[in-house]
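Ticket 4471: requesting a sanity check on a complex prediction with NAP. Repro inputs:
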Amino acid sequence: MSDAIRQLYPVFGEAQPLQGLYLAHDLRQYRQQSGKAYVYANFVTSLDGRIAIADPAHQGTKVPEATANDRDWRLFQELATQADLIISSGRYLRDWGAGRAQEILQVDDPRFADLRAWRRERGLSTQPDIAIVSASLSFPIPDVLTAAARRFIVFTTANPNSDRVAEIEKKGGLVFVAGDEETVYGAQMLDILTDLGYSTVYSAAGPQIHHLLLSGGVLDRLYLTLTPRLLGGVQYATIVSGALFSPPVDLELNALYHDPLALDGLGQLFISYNCLGQASSP
Ligand SMILES: NC(=O)c1ccc[n+]([C@@H]2O[C@H](COP(=O)([O-])OP(=O)(O)OC[C@H]3O[C@@H](n4cnc5c(N)ncnc54)[C@H](OP(=O)(O)O)[C@@H]3O)[C@@H](O)[C@H]2O)c1
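Returned structure tokens:
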């Protein structure tokens, strides 16, 4: 990979390679600084804020082909590599069951062999553990997710379906109620994760889970890849979905890079923000 990335903030930097850009953020340095797990999320978005659009082949949404790209995917993998737990959603496992999703951290992909080594050198398991947020508990559990001593955790709402809880526990999952009958709360979830010993947590989930992390005041950093494309459309998802934040969540720019090579030379921006927002729910 050529040295193409230019840092624009906080300093105007020399051209540097894509590979290693987000490993250099060294997210594991923040663990236990506050006595809580450090939580970060990431989205690739169009200029008009679409992270997902309607999928005509299925009910539901998918990441637009117009924004997905290998260079963003490399950085997504570098973020996932640094986690000891990845958060995803019931939707993700339903997509997996339907053959439309796969492992989040792609350690078996030869392009990411260095990331596998990065984890091994730090004494981390090959795969981070996984936490699924789901009210319905209606999802299949791929065997590979509970193999090789990987911990599979489910956060759900109050009074969950006891048959489903028993089925998940029989497959080796740990089920925690972390909310009321309506919603999982980010702060309750983070307390449980911290008690379980997690220190570096990556949310690869979508807009509703992003909302509960923000409204619970537990998100520390937001990574965005901004592709300079307008997609339009009327059915789409943005980076956050849920009740209005009152007050709004404030974020402070952490770093900004220009990648001129993405999308056949159209380019894209890699942006990260530190969250300053405060908790507004339990
Ligand atoms: N462009 C990007 O970077 C990016 C990143 C992430 C996701 N996406 C896309 O965005 C779309 C939506 O992703 P997603 O479904 O993972 O997003 P999501 O809206 O965060 O999660 C949806 C599912 O999570 C559970 N859930 C969410 N909030 C909850 C709450 N407060 N309490 C309890 N359970 C809750 C529910 O599962 P149950 O239905 O099982 O109850 C719900 O169906 C997908 O097309 C995905 O591919 C794009």
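Notes from triage: Residues 43-44, 51-52, 61-63, 89-92, 133-136, 138-139, 157, 183-184, 205-209, 212, 237 surround NAP (CB under 6 Å). Leaving this open until the requester confirms.
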